[in-house]
Design brief:
Helices cover 15% and strands 18% of the residues. It is α+β, with helices and mostly antiparallel strands.
């Protein structure tokens, strides 16, 4: 299961204090810039948590593991 981005918290890449760090950190390229918002390609996300740990706004939520 992939991470999700809370659009109520994420104000977009241009407003991000780290300039879209989640996109830069993703080892599989699962996060893209889509109209100034990070967008998760769910099929590519391996739920490694790098983006979750580094998001300056805490807008990325880890998938729940069963």
């Amino acid at each position: 299961m992939a991470v999700t981005i809370d659009e109520n918290i994420c104000n977009g890449i241009s407003a991000c204090p780290e300039g879209g760090l989640c996109i830069q950190l993703c080892p599989t390229g699962a996060i893209d810039n889509k109209e100034d918002k990070p967008s998760v390609k769910y099929f590519a996300c391996v739920d490694c948590g790098k983006c979750v740990d580094q998001c300056p706004n805490n807008a990325i939520i880890a998938a729940r593991r069963s």
